[in-house]
Amino acid sequence: MADRLAHPERPALHALTSLRFFAAFAVVVLHYRDLLGPLPEGLRRLIVGGQFGVTFFFVLSGFILTYRYRDWFAGGVSDARFWWFQRFRLARIYPIYLLGLLLDTPWHLLERASGGQLGEVAHTYWASWLLNAVALQAWVPAVPFAMFWNTPAWSVAAEFFFYATFPWLCAALCKRARSWTWLVGAMLLTVLLGAALYGVVIHAMNYLWRVDGTTQYLVITYNPVLRYSEFLAGCLAGIGFLMAREAGGSAVPHLRTAGRRHLLLGLCLLVILVRVMVPNYSGPSAALWLLDVSTKYAVFILPFVGVILAVAAGPTCLSPVLAHRWLVLLGEASYSLYIVHWSVVTVLSMKLLGSWGTPPVHAIALLATVGLSVLCYRLVEVPWRRKLRGRPSDPIAKELPAAVDLPPVHRPAAL
User: For 255, how many CA atoms within 13 A lie in the half-sphere containing its CB?
Assistant: First the structure.
């Protein structure tokens, strides 16, 4: 492969790295909500809104992958580029993914064994475990194949699907994205078609096939195809961000002043907060119910895109906080936090602490899980990422900036 990329190594967007921690922490608190004792209704509704942290991850994933790899696939998708990309992504997420599965496994086996269930359905549990080990659980809307072993890891199964399609998606976007008009139109179409697809599937499950509630939940929440619009929107935002920079500006058009960035950031955060706090529609109209449930995730896509662009485009009032080395470190460890926290939640939910299992102790365990995630990041995620990535002698390796997927570790003075 003779062609070489001329672009310099792109700087890490540390503010976005820090935002990852808040999204991951929101998901963690969501899973701890029943362990924290009675909560005020407003606070509980806000905590339940943590589920949309996954939507933020999907949008941010598309943005960051495009930011880092666009030039790699702009000229097309060769076999070598495709497989090295997949190797880099596997090295990035699989070690911690497997650790999370292994940490969660003993507790589920113990729980089933104590209830006398393990012998009767052992073959089903092991089949489901293997399905989870290869990250395919999001495609099977049935328990115990999904929503059983390390439940939050379903999103990794969706990410693997996104990774498999990204090289061709990126190459196609690079060919077609020539103007901001096209990008804005594509973004709106992505959101609308994503919601429409949800509407068709939900209508079919409720009015044509009469699918049970658990299966409906797993399809609506886990299915990678239905969640694809979130990832695609992030890719489009990444294309636009790079187009603006290469056109001679340092940021997206209309976001080159701090005032405009603050305005966009404030509006997007307000929309997110309002939608989280407004109850889901529960009235008599079937059409309004279908509209509400079909747009459950779609309504967050554009606000999340706005937050990402506002923070990435330049300094904001949040920059001093988001740029702090401690918060950047927590952001780098956010994937570990997202994956390993579930085993702690499982142990606490099994009431293995006895009389010690009180809301204050659970809150301490929540904070301790944050510290555990930093250790997992430093001792497992980074070392294994380096080992699995390797530094191939093939010319393709020279086309990839050394810092891609492996940001520098920001070590606080006390570490």
Answer: 23
**What pTM value is reported for the model?**
0.91
As given in the structure block, the two tokens for residue 109 are 């086996």
Give dist(CA 141, CA 143) in Å, integer.
Answer: 7
pLDDT of residue 325: 93
Instruction: Give the pair of three-digit tokens for residue 149.
Output: 């072993």
Nearest Cα to Cα of residue 219 among 167, 141, 156, 145: 141
Contact 309, 241 (CB under 8 A): yes
Here the tokens at position 78 are 């060769």
CA-wise closest residue to 342 among 121, 148, 118:
148
Which residue reads 């997927």 in tokens? 405
- Give the integer Cα–Cα distance in Å for 63 and 308: 8
Q: What pLDDT, on the 0 to 100 scale, is given for residue 251?
A: 60
Q: Which residue has the tokens 């044509």?
A: 208
Per-residue pLDDT, 255: 84
- How long, in residues, is the chain? 415
- Pick out the chain residues at pLDDT < 50: 1-8, 401-415
Q: Are 312 and 16 in contact (CB under 8 A)?
A: yes
* Cα four-point dihedral sign 68, 71, 77, 80: negative
Judge whether 153 and 339 are in contact, CB under 8 Å: yes
DSSP summary character for residue 162: H
Predicted confidence at residue 348, as pLDDT, reads 93
Q: How far is CA 170 from the centre of its chain?
A: 19
Inter-helix orientation angle 53-73/228-246, to 10°: 50
Tokens (6 digits) for 310: 């506002």
Domain boundaries, the chain: 14-398
DSSP 29-45: HHHHGGGS----HHHHH
At a CB cut-off of 8 Å and minimum separation 6, what does 244 contact? 251, 252, 253
